[in-house]
Target: Class III extradiol ring-cleavage dioxygenase
Amino acid sequence: MSTLPTVFVPHGAGPCFFMDWQPAGTWDRMGGFLRGLVDVVSTRPRALVVVSAHWEESAFTVNAQAAPDLLYDYGGFPEHTYRLAWPAPGAPDLAARIRALLADAGIASREEHRRGLDHGVFIPLKLAFPDADVPVVQLSLRTGLDPAAHLALGRALAPLRDEGVLIVGSGMTFHNMRRFKMSGAGIDADSQRFDAWLAETIALPRAEREARLVDWSRAPGGRESHPREEHLLPLHVVAGAAGDDAGARVLDDVVLGSAQSAFLFGARAHSNVKKA
Model:
């Protein structure tokens, strides 16, 4: 079995891909990318480990359910979006494997058996894996949101890549709610600057890449793009898991007046770059 890449995907706004949105077409390009994710990765994984921006715990926590429900953790959207289904199986054995890897790395963890998969998981993956036939384990962020700790989490997860597991970070490269342009007109200059910095950073050799990601808030447009960094840190996890593998931007989009990108790390990264 070949080593799988790791991938960071933007997950949109709530259930945006499954409702009418104005202006029409706002989410078409991002949705098309997510629908083609298996082709971008170039391998169908045997299982998924997903780190979403929407789950934080005091210790890294693994959803170890055999059949996780969905958590509709958004508000104010059409009624039908609270009836979306994505009955992907869980993977308790994989959850146990994750905890063992974290223990080996000296990283404390917990498991839980009640929380549903949040929209940072089921919304993008309902597009990528519509048949819900790939087992999925969700892994939380850790409160405090230390970028170095999330890089270390990724490094601990790296052996899963040789076991047929796709490590997915689900967030957004710009997430400043006060500066989204609902009309879609124009583009936030800070989002452009930070997105360009991210694309440059993830293409660097590992040591430089990780040093810059630890210090991301000093980047041009960094803190303006992320007043709070929970939507960025899933990128740190997949970058940490990438090890020495190169990274490349594989989606270059503009939505709600902000630059939004996806990044792939691994041997296939540079052959899968998609331009807006």
